[in-house]
Amino acid sequence: MKKLATVLAISVALLTADLAANAGAPCDPSPDCVCGVSTVTVGTGAFVGYWCYTIEASWDSDHGLSHLNILTDLPAACRCEEELITFDTPAGTSQGFEDENDTTPCFNTYTGEYNCMGDPSLGSPLDQVAAIKFEPDTECDDKIGTGTFTFYSQAAPAGDENTVHTAVIVDKNGNGECTGSVTGPLPGIECAVHTIQESLGSVRKRFEE
User: Fold this and answer.
1) What confidence tier does 30 reach under pLDDT thresholds 50, 70, 90?
2) Model pTM score
3) Rounded CA gap, 61 and 144, in Å?
4) Hey, which of 18, 64, 66, 118 has its CA 20 to 30 A from 3?
């Protein structure tokens, strides 16, 4: 009986620590180790004519985050169009911890990069997919963390706030990597259509109502 009580106490302690580490997270990164929630608005200022995509991400992995990728479903024939994807500076911010017992967060900013032919640092076949990459500006051993990542695209949104895109967010950590899902709209384009001209009316209305 005493052994059972000890096991239960340890389980509760581990669960409490895990909940504390992921408090305020936009999504639960388990069991994949990384996840995201996407929203979209119309770009303003220097980004008029673009869609503004914001990814609220959460991760929990065995190694510190090397960089974060969002894989796109853009067709190979037009995914390298000029200015299809662009970024502000910084392109993202995050707060991370070494583990659930760490009380000193590591804050980071990120530089955005669009690899239209794929990110060669990823393993096959992910390295063949057009990737929106967020590279940390400083080194953090943030095995557990949350962040906000923003990019701008001329490609109109595909899906809505309930759409789940599986295996499109990549936590690159050391020599390893893991993929997870993003819930919400992500860029979509048909090569025959220049989306910002074709879809502003219908898609903007859908996301601004």
Assistant:
1) confident
2) 0.79
3) 7
4) 18
pLDDT digits (tens, 9 = 90+) for 124-161: 888 889 999 999 999 888 889 999 999 999 999 999 99
At residue 209 the predicted structure's pLDDT band, cuts being 50, 70 and 90, is low
Q: Where are the alpha helices (DSSP H) in the chain?
A: 2-21, 195-198, 200-208
- Which one has a higher pLDDT value, 12 or 24? 24
Say how many C-beta atoms besides its own lie within 10 A of residue 109's C-beta.
Answer: 15
Domain presence at residue 92: yes
DSSP H or E stretch at residue 56: strand 51-60
Domain membership flag for residue 87:
yes
* pLDDT at 76 (0 to 100): 81
Helix, strand, or coil (residue 18): helix
Torsion of CA 83, 195, 185, 61, to 10 degrees: -30
CB within 8 Å of 43: residues ≥ 6 apart = 49, 50, 51, 52, 152
- Provide the b/e sequence for 10-44 (b: ≥16 CB within 10 Å): eeeeeeeeeeebbeebbbebeebbbbbbbebebbe
What is the distance between the alpha carbons of residues 93 and 29, in angstroms, rounded to a whole number? Answer: 18
Confidence band of 25 (pLDDT split at 50, 70, 90): low
Number of compact structural domains in the chain: 1
Tokens of 46: 């220097």
**Per the domain annotation, does 5 fall within a domain?**
no
- Domain extent, residue 68, equals 26-208
Task: Judge contact between 159 and 182, C-beta under 8 A.
Answer: no
